[in-house]
Amino acid sequence: MSIYDLTIEELTDYFLKNEDKKYYAIELFAWLYSKEKRITSFDEATNLKKETRERLKKDFSISNIDIVTVESSKDVKKYLFKLNDNEHIEAVLMNHDYGNSLCISSQVGCNMGCKFCESGRRKKVRNLKTSEMVEQILKVESDADLRISHVVIMGIGEPFDNYDNICKFIKIINHPKGLNIGARHITVSTCGLVPKILEFADFPYQVNLAISLHAPNDKIREKLMPISKVYKIEDLMKAIKIYLEKTNRRVTFEYIMLNGINDSADNAKELARLLKGINAYVNLIPYNETEALQFIRSNPLTIAKFYDILKKNNITVTIRREFGGAISAACGQLRSKKEDI
Ligand code: SAH
Fold this sequence. Notes:
Number of strands: 12
Bound molecules: S-adenosyl-L-homocysteine
Structural class: alpha/beta
């Protein structure tokens, strides 16, 4: 097991069980996560007893993922990582005026099968471990020599299909002695796994939730997202209302603009009706075309018109700023394998 799989509470239990000092957990977290330390071997944690360090070496590994390549374009870097079992995943670093944000992957492959998404062309191979998600941040911070202030779980994979590891990941990166990334700076994006949305409503961290909606009704959504055959929009909206009541947090709805499929004025009006009175924020995403998939991005005028209709209907809406298209690092373009499949 990797040491980055453990929350500070789990590490505390570990030390207690081994009759070590409880405060070692805090000290080890500092060695692992504070910017000045970031040890690569337990031997460097010099204020822990020698015996403890030896035991840690036996019980845990430290690094389990490696950077293979980094591709850069303006304000964006795409990282390809190799995992212990030779699988590959990607993460994307974006420099914003408000800080540095990292889009991380949560699975190798993805089972959701959204028709428009490149990542979904490869079936899920496995969930990422908590440590493999934590390490995406650590490796990028040290490679790019900067601090990640924002994390979005929007890379390869469906985070709510890897629910427990995602929750642990959030606990570790949010902890003041961990990476200290504010909960409000962390966003989880889901295609809409209803039972997990309900469970997440009780997760006591103020993280942001984004829902990949992409259609104003089931008929269109079913053509795009197989998951909508399992959870209808009505069930999804019911769950979101419960989530909103419990958390009081605004929910983001992501809506890809696909030419001729979901971008008409009627679609915009229907979407506005669906979201009326809900504490929502709509993020319109100009579709990123990929070679293998047939969808076409809506033209800018259509997007502007769609935007205006939502605005006129008092829906808070933005058009997503585009990042990373030149290096296939944009939404939906990430792959879990280097080679073509
Ligand atoms: N599985 C999660 C998170 C990963 S996808 C989810 O579905 O939310 C992150 C976002 O990118 C989702 O809203 C997804 O629908 C969107 N996306 C996928 N392919 C895209 C593409 N080609 N262009 C633009 N956005 C895309």
